[in-house]
Write a structure and sequence with these properties.
Chain A is mainly alpha-helical. The first copy, chain A, has nine helices and no strands. The longest helix of chain A is centred in the middle third of the chain and has 31 residues. At the A-B interface, helix 1, helix 6, helix 7, helix 8 and helix 9 of A face helix 1, helix 6, helix 7, helix 8 and helix 9 of B. Chain A binds a DNA duplex through helix 3.
Chain lengths: ~200, ~200
DNA sequence: ATTATCTATAGATCTATAGATAATGC
DNA sequence: ATTATCTATAGATCTATAGATAATGC
């Protein structure tokens, strides 16, 4: 009852999210989550019964928020190069605001087959329609000879790879002093531009 | 003394490597490693004292083997596009033979600052010279107007991102039935070609 | 003698639950 | 009465070590 502005269940969710993102599922213990939230460990289980439940609730919400902007952006009337640029920009900015999500997502992908099935369903649910449309669009562009023969899957993989890896590798770039506190913001912006240009070049004949 | 062909210390190393790659540092217990190797858990500690030691020894060796082909390939006499193709091909094939390394490497990068410092030093040690030469070459090509203005760092990031992410995302592609047992080999080969073409397109003016 | 291997166990977690007590809403 | 919170504890790991015993190399 210290913080009158929000209840303990909410606090637990917030602290758990932070710890799961920082340390991953296994290293974030319900004991530590409770400590961070300012309650006993038993209370965490009172509200969410199992650690697995708690995690899944957080991960589910996070994954939706993470993918939504990318999935929802409908730019079907744009020329293809601009559509591509818009897609990358939106996804890049979504990741920039959730810089720990790529690693969390990958960890879950590696963790178990069931978790992967869950993620697959979630991706299909959120991105399925957009993905189908995108694939069709790419096919149409290829058929009409506007771009070189690539598949929608290839381009999607390119986008995911370039954007997610960049943020996962940022800490290394900082260690190597390629990225510093001074140039950080500019570097990120330039990288976004580079990725957009790379992808646009990549589809050119 | 069951397996006469190799000693137990070696067996432990091999089983530990497999388990660390499969489950990650935290979920691979010395208990399980011992069980897999066919000895008691105490013996694992007899040979390597701590789990951390054991892991570091394996990771160190694995990281060297993983980066070496990429670092050592000297193609400085080739035209730049061919040099790029060669670099990607070599790194792609190295990852293809160590498909779990990208995730292990990322996990360690995320795990702690000390581990990151260690990785930074290792990368510098193995790739430092090559990296410097590559950067100079890129600058020269840009200066002479052969390619569009990009940095060596950008291209390195592109290569690492596209190649490592592809193998980390493979399980998802399999879940989505984009990759199956039948097309797997061909798909991987085509992806390698696509990445090479993308990077070559990307440097064109 | 030395090295390899085992048994047994201490000590540190961690998750989950049972059961007691305090706070809150009627 | 119901809901929120705490104390205490069971039971499952896991790492690391001490101390005993078996195997090996002179």
């Amino acid at each position: 009852m210290k913080d009158s502005e929000e209840n303990m269940e909410q606090r637990i969710l917030e602290c758990a999210e932070k710890l799961f993102l920082d340390k991953g599922y296994n290293l974030a213990s319900t004991t530590e989550i409770a400590k961070e939230a300012g309650c006993t460990q038993a209370l965490v289980h009172y509200y969410f019964r199992t650690k697995e439940n708690l995690f899944q609730k957080i991960f589910d919400r996070k994954l939706s928020l993470f993918l939504a902007p990318f999935a929802e952006s409908d730019n079907s009337t744009l020329p293809f190069a601009e559509l591509l640029e818009s897609k990358v920009r939106i996804f890049f900015d979504s990741v920039a605001q959730n810089q720990k999500m790529p690693f969390m997502l990958l960890s879950e992908i590696m963790s178990s087959t069931t978790q992967r099935a869950y993620i697959r369903d979630k991706i299909t649910e959120i991105c399925g329609v957009m993905s189908l449309e995108f694939n069709r669009r790419v096919e149409a562009e290829v058929a009409s000879g506007n771009i070189r023969p690539v598949t929608g899957v290839d381009i999607m993989l390119d986008i995911f790879s370039l954007v997610m890896s960049f943020f996962m590798l940022l800490p290394v770039l900082e260690d190597l002093d390629v990225v510093t506190d001074e140039n950080r913001e500019a570097f990120i912006k330039e990288r976004r531009t580079h990725i957009i240009e790379t992808l646009i070049h990549c589809i050119k004949k």
